[in-house]
């Protein structure tokens, strides 16, 4: 199935250090489809970065948001989490951690900013944007994409009217994007998930998770995907403004260092294991986004101090496959070799 005249090689939206205009623009200008992970950005920043992307390229790009999800504030659990962070704060010379003043950006304001930025695609993860919102976005000319980690989620998203679904397999770096059942429940690998979603849905499916070179792209196409969404491999391209400690940790990690952890955010995410993931393994945590906001000062200070043990080193299982991708355009070209027109 065609992807609305967009190229088949997409850069996954990556909130955090990789939310960069230069990177998104380089992917789109390089023949792929760049996406901005805007989940942690204030609405005004979304508009600014989108303008910056547009100043760099006239090619289309996408913007991605986390769907709002209900969560119960639990200050007792949060205080226990802060007590665990305290020793690491001391190691980095930071003041003791405190309860965050804010936990997340206002979703409706972020969405308004995304609309004002006029990307070609608005994509969502960790939820179902719902029939009314999808219809309103489509009426304004946007292509709307949802993220599924199991077939049931794909069906819900299709019923809401999305134009395409990203099938996010277990291999994928970053947060699990699912929303039905327990986050650690649906851990279906890309190889198994993509063809099941392709069979179940009438809309295009993009494959995500563990795709890092032309072989993965060819495999995804063979499974019926209409395109691929690649995250981790783009973290190492020249234009990605990754902190040196994060980059060095990615370059040193092996396949066996990949772990699924709640330790940084309260929600399962895949990254390279470090002291935080090891020492908080099995520890009960407050729900996302409380730990995510509470650990931010530690993560940011660690990135500045070059201390990878306290950074959330999000990356997928295929990380070691492509450690020297070159520029974004070179990576797009290398991945494109696996796609048959
Ligand atoms: C650093 C990082 C940040 C991510 N942030 C987001 C995000 O903001 N929104 C989203 O939909 N997916 C996010 N993801 C997941 C990607 O969309 C995608 O599913 C994943 O990168 C694909 O697997 P791969 O990393 O093996 O290529 C992130 C992934 C990484 C590695």
Describe the structure concisely.
The protein is of the alpha/beta class. It has helices at 21-29, 43-56, 75-91, 107-117, 131-139, 151-160, 190-200, 214-222, 232-235, 244-252, 275-279, 290-294, 296-305, 328-336, and strands at residues 9-11, 34-37, 61-66, 121-125, 143-148, 164-168, 174-175, 205-208, 227-230, 258-261, 269-272.
Tell me the overall shape. globular
CA-based gyration radius: 19 Å
What percent strand? Answer: 5-15%
Helical proportion, percent range: 25-40%
User: Which structural category fits the helices and strands?
Assistant: alpha/beta
CATH class: Alpha Beta
Order of helices and strands: EHEHEHHEHEHEEHEHEHHEEHHHH
Average residue pLDDT: 96
CATH architectural type: Alpha-Beta Barrel
The counted number of beta strands is 11
Quickly count the helices: 14
**Number of domains in the coordinates?**
1
Family: Belongs to the nitronate monooxygenase family. NMO class I subfamily.
Keywords: Detoxification, Flavoprotein, FMN, Monooxygenase, Oxidoreductase
Protein name: Propionate 3-nitronate monooxygenase
GO molecular function, one term: nitronate monooxygenase activity
């Amino acid at each position: 199935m065609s992807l609305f005249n967009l190229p088949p090689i997409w850069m996954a939206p990556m909130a955090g250090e990789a939310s960069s205009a230069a990177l998104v623009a380089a992917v789109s200008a390089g023949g792929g489809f760049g996406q901005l992970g805007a989940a942690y950005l204030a609405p005004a920043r979304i508009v600014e970065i989108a303008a910056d992307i547009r100043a760099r390229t006239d090619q289309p790009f996408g913007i991605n948001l986390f769907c709002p999800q209900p969560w119960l504030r639990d200050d007792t659990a949060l205080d226990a989490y802060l007590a665990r962070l305290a020793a690491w704060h001391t190691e980095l010379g930071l003041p003791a951690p405190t309860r965050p003043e804010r936990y997340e950006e206002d979703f409706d304001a972020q969405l308004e900013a995304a609309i004002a930025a006029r990307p070609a695609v608005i994509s969502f993860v960790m939820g179902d944007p719902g029939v009314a919102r999808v219809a309103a976005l489509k009426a304004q000319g946007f292509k709307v994409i949802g993220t599924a980690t199991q077939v049931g989620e794909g069906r819900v998203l299709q019923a809401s009217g999305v134009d395409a679904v990203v099938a996010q397999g277990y291999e994928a770096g970053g947060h699990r994007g699912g929303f039905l059942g327990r986050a650690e429940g649906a851990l279906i690998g890309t190889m198994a998930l993509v063809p099941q979603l392709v069979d179940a849905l009438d809309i295009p499916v993009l494959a995500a998770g563990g795709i890092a070179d032309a072989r993965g792209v060819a495999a995804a196409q063979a499974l019926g995907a209409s395109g691929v969404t690649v995250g981790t491999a783009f973290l190492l391209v020249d234009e990605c403004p990754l902190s040196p400690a994060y980059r060095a940790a990615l370059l040193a990690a092996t396949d066996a260092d990949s772990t699924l952890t709640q330790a940084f955010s309260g929600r399962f995410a895949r990254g390279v294991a470090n002291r935080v993931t090891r020492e908080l393994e099995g520890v009960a945590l407050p729900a996302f986004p409380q730990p995510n906001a509470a650990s931010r000062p530690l993560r940011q200070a660690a990135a500045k101090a070059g201390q990878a043990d306290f950074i959330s080193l999000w990356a997928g299982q295929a990380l070691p496959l492509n450690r020297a991708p070159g520029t974004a355009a070179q990576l797009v070209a290398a991945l494109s070799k696996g796609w048959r027109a």
